[in-house]
Amino acid sequence: DSGVTQTPKHLITATGQRVTLRCSPRSGDLSVYWYQQSLDQGLQFLIQYYNGEERAKGNILERFSAQQFPDLHSELNLSSLELGDSALYFCASSARSGETDTQYFGPGTRLTVL
Amino acid sequence: EDKVVQSPLSLVVHEGDTVTLNCSYEVTNFRSLLWYKQEKKAPTFLFMLTSSGIEKKSGRLSSILDKKELFSILNITATQTGDSAVYLCAVGQTGANNLFFGTGTRLTVIP
Q1: What CA–CA distances, in Å, run from A29 to A51, A83, B94?
Q2: What does DSSP assign to residue A99?
Q3: Shortest Cα–Cα distance, A106 to chain B (Å)
Q4: pLDDT value, residue B88
Q5: Is the pLDDT of residue B80 over 80?
Q6: How many Å is the Cα radius of gyration of chain B?
Q7: What is the mean predicted confidence (pLDDT) over B76-102?
Q8: Does A88 touch chain B if contact means CB atoms closer than 8 Å?
Q9: Where are the alpha helices (DSSP H) in chain B?
Q10: What Rg value do the Cα atoms of chain A yield, rounded?
Q11: Is 90 exceeded by the pLDDT of residue A69?
Q12: Which residues pair with B64 in a beta bridge?
């Protein structure tokens, strides 16, 4: 157990809908990262927050957004969902925003868009 | 274009065998290479390598980095069925906080 928690574990929804995925980092960690893992692709970095502020952005679609709250938990919002958004979404956390920090992953949320 | 390539894509071995998993990379501003083990869901951290030629070891697992030839290997000796998983290689870059992942090697250890 990495200490990173994610809810829900599974989410099934329809195209066009909007969902929110939640992540709580390890105690004391200030950085949260979101990754997407599709069947045919490896883990793809979406976005990073550090202490409430956006720090880095990867291949995140405009339909997706995230935020980190004062208690350091983070939410990833996915809207206008398409079939291709079906994937595992992982949250990871690290102590700081530094380049040498190891990232620890949560159990993931499996999103299925029908 | 940055890339991390893992080989083989999949591997089936018998318990007790030794396996070597490969990760080669071509990325700008390389900083570190990390290995993760992914069983059912969450990738779990194994090693972080930043210096060439220094082996990191944890039990039956070991890993080494060659920054000149741009690759790393992960060795698992005396494999057990519990080693069955996808092994992910990821690269960290200077100036970037995210990790760049390969697609993984699926290892299956049969009794």
Answers
A1: 9, 33, 20
A2: T
A3: 6
A4: 96
A5: yes
A6: 13
A7: 91
A8: yes
A9: none
A10: 13
A11: yes
A12: B73
